[in-house]
Write a structure and sequence with these properties.
Blueprint: H1 5-21, E1 25-30, H2 33-43, H3 48-60, E2 64-68, H4 69-72, H5 76-97
Antiparallel strand pairs: 1-2
Helix pairs in contact: 1-5, 2-3
């Protein structure tokens, strides 16, 4: 099945989106001031050493934790990237193989 120029562009754009999404932040947890304040209020209710340990633990938690697709997916990220590259090359090869205009007709 031959692809037209529009379909080749769509396949190429889709492959670029899939490949590019692997670098986008996929999962993020934000421990902003409101979240820290709410957790701090809960730790004040804990008794003695447990409460102190929990408060100290809250001080070492970063404000934002995020993971990209490369970090979040185990081995699926490599497969997604490979599929995107294969789709892009298949579309480009098909586009190079197909003539850009129909062959001229012979008079006769």
């Amino acid at each position: 099945m031959e692809m037209n120029d529009t379909r080749t562009s769509v396949v190429g754009a889709g492959a670029a989106v899939v490949a590019g999404s692997l670098w986008a932040p996929r999962y993020a947890i934000d421990f902003g001031p409101a979240a820290r304040q709410a957790m701090g209020a809960q730790t004040n209710q804990l008794p003695g050493v447990l409460g102190e340990f929990t408060r100290q633990l809250l001080t070492v938690i970063p404000t934002r934790i995020e993971a990209t697709g490369w970090q979040a997916f185990d081995k699926a990220d490599v497969m997604l990237f490979a599929c995107a590259i294969v789709a892009l090359f298949a579309a480009l090869i098909d586009r190079m193989d197909s003539p850009s205009s129909p062959p001229p007709r012979r008079a006769g």
